[in-house]
Amino acid sequence: MRVIAGEFRSRRLKSIPGLATRPTPDRLREALFDILAPLIPDAVFLDAYAGTGAVGIEALSRGARQAIFLERSRGAIEVIRQNLAALGLESRASVIAGPVLVTIGRNPLDVVFADPPYELEHEYSRLLDALAQMRPRLAVIQHSARSVLPEAHGCLVRTRVLQQGDNVLSFYEKLICDSAIAEP
Q: Domain 26-182 in CATH: superfamily?
C-alpha cells in the first residue's frame, strides 16, 4: 500500500496482517481524492474506522491541515502511529482509540470518510445519525454494493455515488435544515 499523490507520493505504508481490515484499494482512493481535491487543502479530515490510516494520510499528503483517525483495534492503532511517525505527521494528526460511534464526537469537521467493516453493517444508520448531527461539509461512506444507504438522512443528502467492483462510495452533503429556518 502506498500514498497516491501529494507531498508523500509513492511512499509505502505499513499494512495490517490478516483479514481483519479491508484497506481501501489504491485505485478507489485515487478516484476519491480526485473528487475531494478542492475540499482538501487546509481541511480538518476525519478518517473513521481508519484501519492503516491510508485515507487520512492521503488527505494530509494532499494538504489537509489536520487528520483525526478513529479506530478500535489496538493493532491497527499501532500501525497508524507507525505510518504517521515514518512520514513525520504526528503533529498534524490525532489518533483516537475506541468504537467509532463512541469516539466520533461533535467537533466541526470539513470532510469525513467512514469505512465501517462490512460485518458492522448495522452501524451505518447510527453512523449517519452521528454525521447528521455533526454536519460536516462532506461525508463519504464506503460500503458494499450489497448495502443500500438512504438518499437522505437528517440534514444530509446523498449527492453522488461512485462504484468500483463491490466497493461503493456514497457522498453526503449537509443541508440547512434548522427548525428556526424552516419556520415561516
A: Vaccinia Virus protein VP39 (3.40.50.150)
